Amino acid sequence: MPEGMARDAEAGALAGAVRSTCPYCGVGCGVVAQADGRVVGDTDHPANRGRLCSKGSALAETLKDGERLTRPLIDGRAADWTQALDLVARRFKATIAEHGPDSVAFYVSGQCLTEDYYVANKLMKGFIGSGNIDTNSRLCMASSVAGHNRAFGADVVPGTYEDLELADLVVLVGSNSAWCHPVLHQRLLAARAKRPIRIVAIDPRRTATCEDADLHLAVRPGADVALFNGLLAHLADQDQLDHAWMAAHAEGFEAALSAARQTAGQTAALTGLDPADLVRFYQWFASTPRVVTVYSQGVNQSSVGTDKVNAIINCHLATGRIGKPGCGPFSITGQPNAMGGREVGGLANQLAAHMRFDQPEAIDRVRRFWRAPNLATKPGLKAVEMFDAVLDGRIKALWIIATNPADSLPRADRVREALRACPFVVVSDCWPNDTTALADVVLPAAGWGERDGTVTNSERVISRQRPFRAAPGEARADWRVLAAVGQRMGWKDAFSWTSPAAVFREHAALSGFENAGSRPFDISGLAMLTDGQYDALAPVRWPVRWAGDEGGRLFGQGGFATPNGRGRLVPTPWRPPAGRADDAYPLVLNTGRIRDQWHTMTRTGRVPRLLAHTGEPRAALSPTDAASLGVADGDLVRIESVHAGTVVRATIDAGQRVGELFLPMHWTDEFCSAGPAGRLVNAALDPVSGQPELKLTAVRAAAVPVAWRGLLLHRAAVRPQGVAYWSRMPLNNGHAFELVGSDALPAGPALTRFVEGLLHPPAGAEWLQLTDAGRGLLRVAILVDGRLEACLLLAAGDGAQLPPRDALAALLGDTVTDEARPSLLSGRAPGGLGAAGVKSAGRTVCACFSVGLVTIREAIVANRLTSAEDIGACLKAGTNCGSCIPELKEILRDVHASA
Ligand SMILES: Nc1nc2c(c(=O)[nH]1)N[C@H]1C(S)=C(S)[C@@H](COP(=O)(O)OP(=O)(O)OC[C@H]3O[C@@H](n4cnc5c(=O)[nH]c(N)nc54)[C@H](O)[C@@H]3O)O[C@H]1N2
Ligand SMILES: Nc1nc2c(c(=O)[nH]1)N[C@H]1C(S)=C(S)[C@@H](COP(=O)(O)OP(=O)(O)OC[C@H]3O[C@@H](n4cnc5c(=O)[nH]c(N)nc54)[C@H](O)[C@@H]3O)O[C@H]1N2
Ligand code: SF4
Ligand SMILES: [Mo]
């Protein structure tokens, strides 16, 4: 049993069970890993009180060792840890000796634990002596960090989740919280069920979140600054400011207001919004003392992202609506430990423990605390620039930890080129992915359920991730690997911790070192935890300045971390975003998330039921654009930017603004021929934060002809060749592929080559094949030792002749009897094989209970259901995480309308 599994506190109540924290989003829900193998919500955790979303509910299903990285790899060959660690230390040392400390870099992640992050930052900034450590939080939270620093003097989220429940108006800006922060979203809806809370959603698309809103403002992409400048001007004109609070606690109002001045007509023109809707929103904001403005990637991932953040914060400072119950600007973080990374200084422009490079006394303080020989004295390169430096040879050794930049960075092809060009690339990950494929050294990491440490969520609550299973093979915790390399590079004492608790104590002590109230991030009250207390640590909100202290809301009574203690309103004059359509690229591409997938799918892409709701990366486009392109739902469309082109299937979505496409960020080359959306995406940077504009890229689109469609079922995760489009979904016993072809099916020997390219049949496999050129049908089954290895069904035209997949998929891997063979090619469920009578439940709507569309529609009719609650009572759908409730309502409307 790994250390930390036994908790002294509630050991009795939790016999055999381990409390931990969900590894996905920044809501930071508590989970309990039970002895029976289930992972359930922790009813004692303050973030979720037992609730989990679809992804959290499926965590137990991700704990399969099968495809994990289990041994270090050097040039693709298995090696032992000693060889790998020696090599990494030697190559980094040699590169530094020859080219200086800035010739090496670390690119880390908000999915690292605080302890991993602390060790990485100490090694790079304190001992190697370069600022070149940056994190994928650059793609995620950097604009919020910069906005917080400008307004508050420190990177602080002032409020708590409870504020959303206490507010009378919640404004969601660029946040699809129904899908991306589902448990927090459900908390808000539960509070609204008890008393009126108005919700305004500001998003160019009509998302699931907008379905829950009282007002949806479909803002023109990138125009949020104009929207909030208009609000500030409105508040001033209507005399709705809190002058007394500003006089005591803020500065910069006049300059901010003069930069925000614009006419109502200008606001409407810039934002593309109906003036009446704008006035409605402005009046609600002005007349509601308790307002929380929640914002996420629609704000941050923009070339004007930092100004968006400050335009929002300005309105809160001008009305004194901050740090009080039910009030405040609220940046919700994406990753489970985006906050922890910011706390340790994981961003290239932060030093450590919220101290910055522009404070000479801070540099000196950190140098003394670490006894650091070569402390970095200037910021390093930010993510996008870091990979530019790798490409042009300034960086010659790179270590990537817990992130997949070959897919998730903008201009992904260029990032891959950089990785190929780099003399030495180390990647620490749990699974093989598009980045490990380009590494010289791959280090197998202990993952969630195995690793041991802390994370901080969006409301500053520090929680433990605890191990409850052994890491597969030789996988190791990242902090241990980093510390081992630090020691091998010659810094024995500085990297000599023997437990995560010891790392955490040092981090906590640094936060309090010569602090004396000058830095809000102070957890020195946790610096004396014993190993046992660390193991038993209950969720605690910072600041924690002394043992037993616990942070609450900040800045309600001023006390900002600026030199004079005042919060700053920052002028945010209107500036159009960099990404915009032109004659050659007349559309714009927006990218983001879907409900049941997490990032580049290394974990969620292996769980069949999480691909049942959305199984492919479809491009959403408005009916108007679809008509002008001549594309029907499910057809192929080619999308091109100046950087790259891709072919995906289209979804026609009336919630898309005309001229705008949306593509999910999740699919990679492992899952789909289209590869990552990041290939197309523009790398325009916000000038203050360096965050790339992932939400806005000029593109053009064209219909791609469809000659045939197909279904491939395969035991192996092959990559089909010679098709216009494929995408793969995992099954319990193999994989299902959607295929679409643009060219007519070949004939003769070319047909065999074509089938081989799709199926990659193992040597010695037995083939069954049926071709009906007249009907445009091709069916192939492949058996290995009498078992069904793969099954291919193609049909010309719209694919109407393809059989339902569920019955056939059930046979994959099974022995096929002689009588059953013909049915493989007929595509009908064979009798006598146990699959007959498998009825399709339709596309999954509720992922928590695997309830399909057909089942729901039938139940509505049969039982005369009239509400989402009725459906829940009948089928359980929507009763766990609630994320599918907007869709249940839509289905109800549709069924009743067609009845
Ligand atoms: N299911 C799921 N949940 C996740 C994640 C996941 O991968 N899957 N990832 C986590 C992470 S790391 C993050 S950062 C969060 C992100 O959480 P969100 O920010 O909520 O997610 P996104 O889908 O990236 O973007 C949110 C919305 O911004 C809108 N948007 C685009 N441009 C603009 C604009 O100019 N103005 C405005 N107002 N809106 C705009 C998009 O249309 C989109 O609906 O989600 C976290 N939670
Ligand atoms: N086009 C587009 N691109 C985007 C975005 C977008 O909205 N649009 N959003 C951006 C945002 S907000 C984010 S946060 C990023 C996310 O992008 P990435 O960070 O690249 O996404 P992940 O797939 O979460 O990658 C995490 C990797 O860490 C591995 N891993 C998990 N746990 C551990 C561990 O304990 N140790 C180690 N060593 N490895 C581990 C996983 O297997 C996975 O390969 O994507 C960004 N890119
Ligand atoms: S909302 Fe879902 S993904 Fe986010 S922490 Fe909670 S259970 Fe995990
Ligand atoms: Mo993120």
Automatic annotation (TrEMBL):
Classification via InterPro entries: Asp_de-COase-like_dom_sf, BFD-like_2Fe2S-bd_dom, BFD-like_2Fe2S-bd_dom_sf, CT_Nitrate-R-NapA-like, MoPterin_dinucl-bd_dom, Mopterin_OxRdtase, Mopterin_OxRdtase_4Fe-4S_dom, Prok_molybdopt-oxidoreductase
The keyword 4Fe-4S is annotated on this UniProt entry: yes
Keywords in alphabetical order: 4Fe-4S, Iron, Iron-sulfur, Metal-binding, Molybdenum, Nitrate assimilation, Oxidoreductase
Short name of one Pfam family: Molybdop_Fe4S4
Cofactor(s) annotated in UniProt: Mo-bis(molybdopterin guanine dinucleotide); [4Fe-4S] cluster
4Fe-4S Mo/W bis-MGD-type domain mapped to chain residues: 15-67
Biological process terms in GO annotation: cellular respiration; nitrate assimilation
Highest taxon listed in the record's lineage: Bacteria
MF annotations from Gene Ontology: 4 iron, 4 sulfur cluster binding; metal ion binding; molybdopterin cofactor binding; oxidoreductase activity
GO CC entries: membrane; oxidoreductase complex
Record family assignment: Belongs to the prokaryotic molybdopterin-containing oxidoreductase family. NasA/NapA/NarB subfamily.
PANTHER family in the cross-refs: NADPH-FE(3+) OXIDOREDUCTASE SUBUNIT ALPHA (PTHR43105:SF9), RESPIRATORY NITRATE REDUCTASE (PTHR43105)
Name assigned to this protein: Assimilatory nitrate reductase catalytic subunit
